[in-house]
Amino acid sequence: MNQATSQRVLRTAGLVLAGGLLSLVIALLVSGATEPLPLADPGPIVRWSQPIAKLILNLSMATTVGTLVLSAFAGNEAERARLRPLAAGSAALWLGAAALYFVLTYLSASGSEISYGPLFSEGLWLFATQIELGSLLAWNLAFAFVLSLTTLAFSDHRIIAVNAAIALAGLYPLAESGHASSDAGHALAVNSLLMHLVGISVWVGGLVALFAMLAGSGERNQVLVSRYSTLALLASVMVGVSGLTSGFIRLYSFADLLSPYGQVLIAKVALLVLLGFFGARYRVSLIANWSKSQASFWKLVGLELFIMGAAIGAGTALAATPLPENPKEFVPPTPAEILTGDPLPPELTELAWVTVWDVDILWLFVCGLGIFLYLFGVARLLRRGDSWPVGRTLSWVMGMLVLLYVTNGATNAYQEYLFSVHMVGHMILSMLVPVLLVPGAPVTLLSRVQTARKDGSWGLREWVLWAVHTPYAWFISHPLFAGLNFALSLVLFYYTPLFRWATEEHLGHQWMLVHFLITGYLFVQSLIGVDPQPHRPGYPVKLMLLIGTMAFHAFFGLGLMNEKSLLLADWFGSMGRTWGDDPLTDQALGGAFAWGVGEIPTIVITMIVVWQWSRSDDRERRRLDRASDRSGNKDLSDYNEMLAKLNSSKERGR
Ligand code: HEM
Fold first, then answer.
1. Quick count: other Cβ atoms within 10 Å of Cβ 416?
2. Which of 282, 299, 320 is the last residue of a domain?
3. Looking at the domain assignment, is residue 175 inside a domain?
4. 99 and 242 co-located in one domain
5. Residue of 243, 237, 241, 238 lying closest to 315 (CA atoms)
6. Ligand 1 centre from 54 Cα, in Å?
7. Centre of ligand 1 from the C-alpha of residue 211, in Å
8. Does the C-beta of 189 come closer than 6 Å to ligand 1?
9. What pTM does this model have?
């Protein structure tokens, strides 16, 4: 890194750190979060250095994620090489800050003093392995450790994307810790904070990388700035939506807005609105008139980085600030609250399938984005004068709406309490949603809407087309693998500890949703997919696979219906439900749903396969007819000639 660049990096770091420290100190003083603790007070040094370490952790994490994402999606080879020292440097800083924050949190949680004896390291080890908060911080540290090595060791474009994925995954443990770790509304708290941290990291980290390493006046900078600006727009919406959601679930009344926690929250909303003005100014005028306004653009970016630092400082203080008092704090929890953290939903009636919702902001955002980007793509195609089958659009939008319902509607509200509803959700997710999404042909739409990049950088189009042509994609999209994976996943999931993990742990539940969605998508794509794929099995093979799957679903469902014991007795059997079927009857009902609900999409796929088969036969016949017409029915005359020859040789034989 040459001297000018390192000075620029220091200046950028100075801007965000100054904003961060200033607002952190003010917010901590306002909220009283660093006041001495009534019991086991760790002392002022730990009380102040812990949030400061967390601030540096948040800033270095954001810079690592943002730099890697910008590198993977916006930069060409030369720009990726220029960004590499920043990615490696911030990953190393992340590692240091995560280690310091881990030790300070241990001191604060245990009230013990720093010492160099075996007792202290044993305590640290216990904290990392036996205490949930400790193990989450240890995981964050582990991700930072891996990244600090891989960002240094590898420069290949694809490894940069893998590093970006590792860095994003490294945010998860922090989303599970802190205020989000409390049981009540745990799923929503974790998903909204994760969405918040991902949005902040791409938005702030991307701008840090752009300002520190790629600032300049040329046309190329305009390209980079507008690519970043698209990422920033999406990220800022994520930050706003998830921040308001996180804030909303932590306040129990309007009056709580006046609590120290509420006051810092209001300050953050104000900072976000201010940052919104910056973004609008860039997009509306500065980027468009780049040659004239690039100098004022970079000046404004400097100020924006300071304010972003301030917002991160306020966020860090918020995480350290005690929550407003929960009016139900001392109400004894029900069995359902002890198990799930949330009260039992109202009795499941027909109407409840429509009226009872348990919103998951992350999946709501994913489905909304899936619909918005698809319609945006179709609109761009039509504006260009190209056509796109309306059936595909309707099918895709329906698929996303059904996914939205499964992850936010009654299936999400009741799946923790009723095995039958869990199974309905599972079957819709792994069968019905893919049957609607696959005909939408998203890969074809993307490759037609986005023009190929010619500057050596990879955008979404390049990454998707690369991914679907990898040997891994070849293997998992093979109909045989897709069919086996689809069928065996069901048995492996319910008859191994995976089911308990997915029922009791938030991460397990999210994994289940993603796994079964992808498994169903691969299976349906291999049978009726419109998008390009490496395998084209014959229709008879497809029908055999479908019959096999149908039979398998029937056996699986029947097996569950005849189960004499509960799969998770200490969960579904201990909910304290006073309405609906008893847990074993409910489990049998779940088996019936696995059979019934699972078969409906399978029948739909079978009908589509038979229809595609008949259409391909028609197409073949028409092709042969056209060829015959072109050759003046030469094939027909050849055939008749052959028959005549056969006849004459028979005649001769007699
Ligand atoms: C509508 C505006 C926003 C709201 C309502 C909001 C709300 C929140 C809430 C409720 C939390 C969780 C704190 C806790 O653990 O209790 C949080 C965390 C955080 N916010 Fe925001 N936020 C907003 C905007 C921003 C912006 C613009 C940034 C930075 C650019 C930001 C940075 C952070 C950070 C870094 C954390 C994590 C703190 C930590 O766990 O150490 N927030 N925010």
1. 24
2. 320
3. yes
4. yes
5. 243
6. 13
7. 23
8. no
9. 0.92
- Round to whole Å and give the CA distance between 224 and 207: 11
pLDDT of residue 183: 60
Amino acid (one-letter) located at 166: I
**256 CA to centre of ligand 1 in angstroms:** 17
- Ligand 1 pocket member 85 (CB < 6 A): no
Residue nearest to atom 2 of ligand 1 (CA): 269
Residues 304 and 173 in one domain: yes
Distance from the CA of 233 to the center of ligand 1, in angstroms?
A: 17
Query: How is 15-52 classified by DSSP, letter by letter?
Result: HHHHHHHHHHHHHHHHHTTTSPPSSS---HHHHHHHHH
CB atoms within 10 A of CB 426: 26
CA 372 / ligand 1 centre spacing (Å) = 25
- Pocket perturbation via mutation, ligand 1, pick of 200, 203, 257 by most ligand atoms within 8 A of CB: 200
Residues 301 and 430 in one domain: no
CA 316–ligand 1 middle distance (angstroms): 7
Q: Clarify whether residues 428 and 315 are in a common domain.
A: no
Q: How far apart are CA 194 and CA 507, in angstroms?
A: 12
Residue 318 CA: which ligand 1 atom is closest?
13
Cβ(568)–Cβ(510) under 8 Å?
A: no
Cα–Cα distance for residue pair 294/317, rounded to 1 Å? 34
CB 422 near ligand 1, within 6 Å: no
- Among 65, 196, 308, the mutation site with the greatest number of ligand 1 atoms within 8 A of its Cβ is 196
Q: Which atom of ligand 1 lies nearest, measured to the CA of 178?
A: 15
CA of 19 to the centre of ligand 1 (A): 15
Pair (300, 424) in one structural domain: no
Beta carbon of 188 within 6 Å of any ligand 1 atom: no
**Rounded CA gap, 173 and 171, in Å?**
6
pLDDT of 116: 78
Alpha carbon distance 560, 489 (integer Å): 15
105 lines ligand 1 (CB under 6 A): no
Query: From the CA of 370, how far away is ligand 1's center (Å)?
Result: 25
Q: Where are the beta strands (DSSP E) in 301-433?
A: none
Instruction: Looking at the structure, tell me whether residues 105 and 247 fall in a common domain.
Output: yes
Radius of gyration over every alpha carbon of the chain, rounded to an integer in angstroms: 29
**Does residue 638 sit within a domain?**
no
Site to probe by mutation for ligand 1, drawn from 54, 136, 272 as the one with most ligand atoms within 8 Å of Cβ, is 272
Q: Is residue 375 part of a domain?
A: no
End-to-end CA distance of the chain: 95
Write the pLDDT tens digit of every residue in 191-229.
999 999 999 999 999 999 998 877 777 788 889 999 999
| Longest Cα separation, the chain | 115
Residue 508 lies in domain: 414-630
Which amino acid makes up residue 3? Answer: Q
653 domain residue, yes or no: no
By alpha-carbon position, which residue is closest to atom 34 of ligand 1? 315
* Cα 197 to Cα 162, 177, 204, 243, 624, distances in angstroms: 19, 12, 10, 10, 59
Question: In which region does residue 43 sit, left (phi positive, over 0), alpha (psi from -120 to 50) or beta (all else)?
Answer: left
d(CA 244, ligand 1 centre) in Å: 9
For the chain, residues with pLDDT lower than 70 are 1, 182-184, 283, 654
Question: Quick one: pLDDT at residue 97?
Answer: 98
190 lines ligand 1 (CB under 6 A): no
End-of-domain residue from the set 299, 320, 341: 320
**Quick one: 297 and 438 in the same domain?**
no
Q: Are 607 and 440 in contact (CB under 8 A)?
A: no
- Domains held by the chain: number: 2
Considering the domain architecture, whether residues 204 and 308 belong to the same structural domain is answered as yes
User: Any idea what the CATH number is for the domain that residue 95 is in?
Assistant: 1.20.1630
